[in-house]
């Protein structure tokens, strides 16, 4: 056994190795949304900036998760946190899908704008995901840091792969926007404040959370809503640009 003080202890036994495996598996599964977000935010950047943005975005995601681990249980009990976070996710998803943010096209400012969107989304998307990671670490900070640290190259690889596929197959962008819309919808409907407003017929057996069928329904609405609104805004922007060009000529 090795005592690392505040970072916990290392036991070279099966339980310790099983905990590492559990944390890595959980983090890989839960990092899928983050990889989609990072890939969509970086897809319009030049090649050199795209790679840098993906690495920085993945690093930010892990750092945010480590910090949130200390406060996660308390944060999720506060009303409006997930509701506001869900709204932010939906807004970011629409902006990324629409592709109307001029700052996401160009040089250095574009990369930092993309990172800003990644940071805002990670702060909200990581809230409920970190509960599983914190539980698997059993309070051992070393296990948590090791598992999350190993996940960085995995998130980077997935983000790079998705980014390349989005360039070749634009339809994947639609799927990415739908995933982010689903995440935003799920966060909003599971906020404690929203749950209190629901009638008992729409609540789960514990009478504290929305019924699963309602969560699924809101996720579908969020996914479709992001695509429909993004398409509409993109069409409106094209029509506006055409009108300006016609006026100039």
Describe this structure in words.
By secondary structure, this protein is mainly alpha-helical. It has one domain (about 1-240). The chain is about 80% helix and about 0% strand. The protein has 10 helices and 2 strands; from the N terminus they run E-E-H-H-H-H-H-H-H-H-H-H. It has helices at about 15-30, 30-40, 45-70, 70-75, 80-100, 110-135, 140-170, 170-190, 190-195, 210-249; strands at about 1-5, 10. The radius of gyration is 20 Å and the shape is globular. Residues about 100-110 have low confidence and may be disordered.
Radius of gyration: 20 Å
Task: List the uncertain runs.
Answer: 100-109
SSE run:
EEHHHHHHHHHH
Strand order of the largest sheet: 1-2
Portion of residues in helices?
Answer: over 70%
Sketch the major β-sheet.
Answer: 2 strands, antiparallel
Hey, roughly how much beta strand do the residues contain? under 5%
| Structure annotation, total helices | 10
Q: Count every beta strand, where a strand is a DSSP E run of 2 or more residues.
A: 2
Distance between the termini: 77 Å
Roughly what is the average pLDDT, rounded to an integer?
75
What number of structural domains do the residues give? Answer: 1
């Amino acid at each position: 056994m090795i005592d690392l003080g505040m970072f916990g202890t290392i036991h070279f036994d099966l339980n310790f190795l099983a905990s590492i495996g559990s944390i890595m598996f959980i983090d890989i599964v839960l990092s899928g949304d983050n990889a989609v977000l990072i890939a969509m935010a970086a897809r319009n950047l030049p090649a050199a900036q795209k790679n840098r943005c993906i690495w920085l975005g993945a690093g930010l995601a892990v750092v945010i998760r480590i910090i949130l681990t200390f406060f996660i249980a308390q944060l999720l009990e506060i009303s409006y946190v997930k509701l506001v976070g869900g709204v932010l996710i939906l807004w970011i998803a629409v902006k990324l899908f629409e592709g109307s943010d001029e700052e996401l096209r160009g040089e250095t400012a574009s990369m930092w704008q993309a990172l800003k969107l990644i940071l805002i989304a990670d702060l909200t998307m990581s809230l409920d995901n970190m509960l599983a990671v914190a539980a698997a670490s059993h309070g051992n900070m070393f296990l948590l840091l090791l598992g999350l640290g190993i996940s960085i190259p995995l998130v980077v690889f997935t983000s790079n792969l998705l980014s390349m596929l989005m360039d070749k197959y634009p339809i994947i962008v639609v799927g990415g926007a739908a995933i982010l819309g689903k995440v935003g919808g799920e966060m909003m409907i599971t906020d404690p404040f929203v749950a209190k407003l629901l009638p008992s017929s729409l609540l789960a057996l514990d009478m504290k959370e929305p019924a699963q069928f309602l969560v699924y329904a809101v996720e579908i609405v969020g996914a479709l809503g992001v695509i429909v609104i993004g398409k509409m805004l993109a069409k409106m922007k094209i029509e506006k640009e055409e009108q300006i060009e016609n006026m100039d000529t």
